Amino acid sequence: MSDFKALGLKGNTLKGVSRAGYTTPSPIQAAAIPLAVAGRDLIGCAQTGTGKTAAFVLPMLHRLYEMPRPKRGRPVRALVVVPTRELALQVEKATRTYGQFTPFLSLAVFGGTSIDKQIRTLRRGVDIVVATPGRLLDLMDRGVISLSKVGVFVLDEADRMFDMGFIKDIRKIAAEVPKQRQTLLFSATMPKAVQELAQSIQTEPEYIQVGQRRNPAKTVDQGVCRVLPNEKIGLLCHVLQTQDVESVIVFSRTKYRADRIVRKLSKKGFSATVMHSNRSQKQREKALAGFRSGRFQVLVATDVAARGIDVDSISHVINYDTPNQPDSYIHRIGRTGRAETEGVALTFVTEAEEKHLIAIEEHISRRLPRKVFEGFESDAPPEILPAPGSVTPKTPKHKKSKASRRKKAAARKRNRKHKRQRSTS
Ligand code: AMP
Description:
By secondary structure, the protein is of the alpha/beta class. The chain has 17 helices and 13 strands. The structure holds adenosine monophosphate.
């Protein structure tokens, strides 16, 4: 507890930390909390699982105490915008956990669920709103929520908001928050669009980066399995049967494939549930609660739906389909190995998916170990990659340009020969 006290937190906020059971601040907390407590704008470049939620919720609670008390009612004074409903629920839950000894009330605001209940709660008054952009704008348009008293504005997972096309919405929301405010922006990666957004909505932000941005948590044991497309389900079942898999998130490329995987796993007797954007909010919450409680061993999900899932002790992440973006790979495997626990991440790679693997390995600057499971023989053709142990694999572009250089040289040689023959004839 004293470690958190040294970061500038006090009273009931400290009590909340202690009730959460934290004794030592994580690196992002140690770096961000003192600056945020002092009222600075921040850019926190940190992956999920690093403790970043507490890194902004704790100073936010601290700052709410420091702000002048509203003369009338209970206006929204802290606003957290997140990309998904699941994350909204999680962050709001965190505000209740850390803020359980404070007088502040919070509300999660997101689409796909009754707006009337949210309107009623907002009318009664809340201090903290955790929202997804679409529903928040809807409530603003209806005149139900005013952001004119917001003093702390947090954007979480800004890169994902950009991926999901929310940047325009964020700008609209930011324009409604008073200029005199504190803005905290968190993002796992820092693409140009996020840097530009930060520049336009923050004032002299302090930049904090925790860990190597490109590298997944060190506690994740990563591996790659070469397979044929029709062998994937067999390999998944084999891993579930033979490895010490306590709980696993299986990532699929599409919603359709996710449903099919669950059907096949259930037929084989595994307890599996699914999470994707075609499922209703109720179904998603039920799936997550069942997975959290251990009723389901397997959660099959697509990228967007799985964003922000904070379930402790996920022992395995399996990329049933190789992610086609290196950033997705980092995010996906960040579901395991959280808060210093050990985790395993396996990626199934077919010949057609090899290009994605090459991009991932280039991004993280290392070749991932190839894994073969005893009792499971794959008929996949050998890789066209360098032998194990060699450094960064070559990109197909590189290979192609070398081949085309050779072709061009041969063509030049042929031309010269023809010229010689014509001149001598
Ligand atoms: P987050 O990156 O915010 O999603 O947090 C990842 C996990 O770490 C959550 O389960 C938190 O409860 C946990 N956590 C956050 N801060 C600490 C801390 N200082 N000590 C131990 N666990 C923590």
